[in-house]
């Protein structure tokens, strides 16, 4: 390996090795922790009380609990709904539509809309949660601008439709990512192809479905996987906005893990939920890896 | 004729979308500048900046400094560790390198909530339940992505430049400082921005790691103060939110030119 290396790399290789030790340690530690979660998921370790020190291995009990007790399956369902509607339906489609329409708009309009969408993206999660909670309170923006003019009774919207509001908040927060990615993807489609089809009499819809979309297929897949995984494990905005409530209506898996591990204190059970979550993410990531590997 | 009409309609719809998009900020704006803010959405009777003064002094000001400390420490750590490890990763044909790179692609997806319990225990047993511990944890969680990104940037720097520097007698650090780093400025900017903003926004780790209000970064500070519903000082909260959001937004808009280089498509070549 060193024989083919460049002379300065050969000269300095001890230095190179030393300098990469922190990174190797960090990546190793990350892997070690993933293994640790797996081991912990077979124990009854808890955060407080007797089981914090005198824990023991209990086999697959935690995993049985995932499917027999209330909680996990409900939480998984909430997560799937949240992820599907906020990322695939919301961020993905809105991001694509925005990227497609803004391409032909004059610079000022384009850059101001871009800035508005990106502002939501770069805003810290807790501030976004604060804003959305204020927007939906009685006498908040939605109440004043929509409900009162239509003389609909004012209610606490966050209590009535928590999942919907959390989904909207995530769309608002994350669409910029899809927008940026699709803008770049559309720039890579040569204009000539689309124009040739126009000359041949293809309608805008036909051009979209038969030319543009197939050409950016890999970008669409990449984007969908990314935002799906991102929403699937999303924690701060939902936690700060609803805390998983009311009840368990917005308790997505990441909040469930947090609650079971740090509020209830059942670290073993929390780890089993983590493992289930990691497996789902790993399956999605493997899809992603295969996608990147495909020859373009 | 029909075309111009159509483009007007599109423009109006787009402007409406932008308006809806920024409309939640209205609440923030009117409450932040209203010294008698009561949390409702109404025009302030008087406009003043007392709220901002309050949000910059005392404990709140300290939390701003905590966030700054956390973010600068994280981004510095990340850039230094990633630069030195990404360089051999890019230049040396180590056996098993590709397997390692693919492992990084997978590890990049590892969610913090998935490994939060071991992270907590490790920090507890090493006495790191503080902001330094948070910085180290974020650096570790971000490293797979930052390594891949920098490696891809280093791949684009022609090796002949280093060769020339070497034949003129440059040391390793001189090659890094005078050739590699200037040539991959954009990549380093992305890594720096990415780690700075993740640390600035990070909520879960400080929530678990930090117990004392004086040690909170702004994310947890803001969360803690809007949880107390009994006597909420809305003017303070609104101006605090703005002060917390400004650096994150500013950093993005300052660096946006550098950031267009693919965030998502970090793959492995060859």
TrEMBL record, chain A:
Stored PANTHER family: BLR7065 PROTEIN, SPERMIDINE_PUTRESCINE TRANSPORT SYSTEM PERMEASE PROTEIN
Q: Where in the cell is it found?
A: Cell membrane
Question: Which Pfam family, an example, fits this chain?
Answer: BPD_transp_1
Q: Name one GO cellular component term.
A: plasma membrane
Q: Which InterPro entries match?
A: MetI-like, MetI-like_sf
What is the protein name given in its UniProt record? Sugar ABC transporter permease
**Domain ABC transmembrane type-1 stretches:** 72-290
**Keywords on record:** Cell membrane, Membrane, Transmembrane, Transmembrane helix, Transport
Question: What stretches pass through the bilayer?
Answer: 12-39, 76-101, 113-134, 163-182, 224-247, 267-289
Similarity-based family: Belongs to the binding-protein-dependent transport system permease family.
Which BP terms in the Gene Ontology apply to this protein? transmembrane transport
Taxonomic placement: Bacteria, Pseudomonadati, Pseudomonadota, Alphaproteobacteria, Rhodobacterales
Membrane topology, record value: Multi-pass membrane protein
Source species: Halocynthiibacter halioticoli
Automatic annotation (TrEMBL), chain B:
> Could you name the domain of life of the organism this protein comes from?
Bacteria
Which PROSITE patterns does its entry note?
ABC_TM1
Query: Has keyword Glycosyltransferase?
Result: no
Residues spanning the membrane: 12-30, 68-87, 99-121, 127-150, 186-209, 234-255
SUPFAM superfamilies for the chain: MetI-like
InterPro entries hit by this protein: BP-dep_ABC_trans_perm, MetI-like, MetI-like_sf
Q: Single GO cellular component annotation?
A: plasma membrane
The record's annotation in Gene3D superfamilies points to:
MetI-like (1.10.3720.10)
Any Pfam family hit: BPD_transp_1
ABC transmembrane type-1 domain: residues covered: 64-255
GO BP: any one term: transmembrane transport
Q: Where in the cell is it found?
A: Cell membrane
Keyword Transmembrane helix on entry: yes
Recorded topology in the membrane: Multi-pass membrane protein
Q: Which UniProt keywords apply?
A: Cell membrane, Membrane, Transmembrane, Transmembrane helix, Transport
Protein family per UniProt: Belongs to the binding-protein-dependent transport system permease family.
Spell out the PANTHER family in the cross-references.
Answer: INNER MEMBRANE ABC TRANSPORTER PERMEASE PROTEIN YCJP, MALTOSE TRANSPORT SYSTEM PERMEASE-RELATED
State what protein this is by name: Carbohydrate ABC transporter permease
What is the organism of origin for this protein?
Answer: Halocynthiibacter halioticoli
Q: What is the lineage of its organism?
A: Bacteria, Pseudomonadati, Pseudomonadota, Alphaproteobacteria, Rhodobacterales
